[in-house]
Write a structure and sequence with these properties.
The protein is α+β, with helices and mostly antiparallel strands and 94 residues long. It has a domain at 32-94. 26% of the residues lie in helices and 26% in strands. It has three helices and six strands. The strands form two sheets. It has a three-stranded mixed sheet with strand order 1-4-3, with no helix packed on it. Strands 5-2-6 form a three-stranded antiparallel sheet. The longest helix is centred in the N-terminal third of the chain and has 13 residues, at 3-15.
C-alpha cells in the first residue's frame, strides 16, 4: 500500500462521524435528590452539624445533595462524604 492510499483511507475514517454522536438521548440525566433527615443507601451514615448560614452542598464522593438549614443543622451524611466535609471548620461530626 502506498502513502496515498493510506492517506485517503485515513481521511475517509476521520470524516465519518461516530455512530453514537448522532443517536439522540432518550432520557434526561437524573438530578440528585436533596437529602434531609436520614440518607438512604447501602453505606453507613454519620451525623454532621453545620455551623453558619444555611447551605446546600454536594457530597464530594457520592454527589448527593445535602441541605443544611437552621432548622435542620444536623444531617445524616454518607460516611464517604462526611470524611471530606468534616475537614471544613463549618462542619462538626457528632
Amino acid at each position: 500500500m502506498c502513502c496515498g492510499s493510506r492517506r485517503s483511507a485515513w481521511r475517509m475514517s476521520a470524516a465519518a462521524p461516530p455512530a453514537q454522536a448522532t443517536a439522540p438521548r432518550t432520557q434526561p440525566a437524573p438530578t440528585p435528590a436533596v437529602v434531609t433527615g436520614s440518607a438512604p443507601g447501602p453505606f453507613p451514615t454519620v451525623s454532621l452539624r453545620r455551623h453558619g448560614a444555611p447551605i446546600r452542598v454536594a457530597g464530594p464522593v457520592t454527589g448527593r445533595l445535602y441541605a443544611f438549614t437552621e432548622a435542620e443543622a444536623i444531617q445524616a451524611v454518607d460516611l464517604r462524604d462526611a470524611a471530606v466535609l468534616a475537614r471544613s471548620p463549618s462542619f462538626q461530626q457528632l
